Amino acid sequence: MTTGPYSVEHSLSTRSEVQELVLEQVGRACQRLRPHEDRAYLEGRFNDEIIPIFRDAHLLGLPISSDYGDGQNSDMSTYALAIERIGEEGTGVRTFFSGHISLGQLTLQKWGTREQKERYLPKASRGEIIMAFALTEPSAGSDPSSLQTTFEENGNYYVLNGSKAWISNGSIADTIITFAYPKGKHDGMRAFVVESNVEGYRTQEIKNKLGLASSNTSFIFFDNCRIPKDSILGPPGKGLSIAHSAIMNGRLSVAAGSVGVMTDCIKEAVMYAKNRIQHGKAIGKHQLVQEHLGIMTTNREAAHALTIRAASLKMQSDNKIHDNRLRDEADILVAQAKYFASRVAYDAADRAVQVFGANGYSLENRVARHLADTRACRIYEGTEEILLQKIALKELGNEFKAFS
Ligand SMILES: Cc1cc2nc3c(=O)[nH]c(=O)nc-3n(C[C@H](O)[C@H](O)[C@H](O)COP(=O)(O)OP(=O)(O)OC[C@H]3O[C@@H](n4cnc5c(N)ncnc54)[C@H](O)[C@@H]3O)c2cc1C
Predict the structure, then answer these.
(1) Active-site residue 115, yes or no?
(2) Does the predicted model carry a pTM greater than 0.90?
(3) Residue 291 Cα to ligand 1 middle (Å)
(4) What is the whole-number distance in angstroms between the Cα of residue 125 and the centre of ligand 1?
(5) Separation between Cα atoms, residue 7 and residue 3, nearest integer Å
(6) Which domain CATH number covers 153?
(7) Rounded to the nearest 10 degrees, what angle do helices 384-396 and 324-356 cross at?
(8) What pLDDT, in 10s, does the model give residues 354-396?
(9) Considering only CA atoms, which residue is closest to atom 26 of ligand 1?
């Protein structure tokens, strides 16, 4: 049992023994990672200690089948709890896991052929290759159906041309899931698994981001990349469905990570409020400071409950692949969890900074980093506007659809 200044045990009484064990492992890895993350963030570079530390702990393929390498067979709820804990270390750390596992390995596991799974998953789950998911383009964000990257058949190869933007793990990934239309057409989008050592493949890291200083975010360019025919992922006509199923996993990861951010903001703010003296007493004794903590903890509990419920419904839906009603319900709940958790995490980071006063304005303190970093959670994996419209549509009915 953890006994920090802020204990969440009361809300976790339903954790199984397996979940406790996984969380102990994750907690130990996170403790090892923290000093490296502090340094990497302030130096503005990818924290490359994540890979060896989490590989040693066998945590780089947590929800992947044990048929593959270091896959641990964790269910979605356990994985969500693990991501919550990882989120405490920072959104940059959690974003690595989103790209490598939620959007990368889980997508391959769901849609890949046996050969593709055997080729990539054992290595990915052991951290020997790193994965990324590249859908967004300079002119295609919220509307991925407008993407411009193309593929063309040429003998035993497909030739890929185009560019992707804002790709997490972009410059460090060896294996990328990406999307393109057949050249000259605007339907029939397909997904591909591309290896980064192919000729014509190039990346460029995006610098000067608002936050996420220790996360790698990059452009990817495909310039006449010849990729083997067996790089195609999933059946014809399923490109957008594959993207969407990946994004559902990504959203769950953002929601869970946001809960972790809130946990850390609360721990940090409580500790600070107990120790900082102003007007002759600890600031935690001032009622307006208590208000921040009351709001943060209430929102955290709500976000945690919603995220775990979404993970559980998603798990049920994954086990009943032909139940479209269940899938749609899971889709909405995951969108609600991502929308709500990312919003209240940003609010919690803002309140934690406020409790810290000027010290909260320094990136030396994690609360400041949380504030800068969680802003991204309200944009990636579906912006708030897109998610809210999706959620509202469920109530209004499809005839109110504003866009397709
Ligand atoms: C740090 C970071 C990491 C990322 N990692 C990845 C990654 O790994 N892989 C990947 O593929 N992408 C990634 N992205 C990209 C991300 O998914 C997109 O930024 C997101 O989908 C929004 O697209 P956009 O930025 O082009 O904004 P736009 O789509 O141009 O939207 C701009 C604004 O217009 C609003 N808007 C757009 N359409 C509508 C509408 N129909 N109704 C109402 N409002 C609308 C949006 O909500 C938003 O407020 C990342 C982004 C960031 C910031």
Answers:
(1) no
(2) yes
(3) 33
(4) 28
(5) 6
(6) 2.40.110.10
(7) 140
(8) 999 999 999 999 999 999 999 999 999 999 999 999 999 999 9
(9) 141
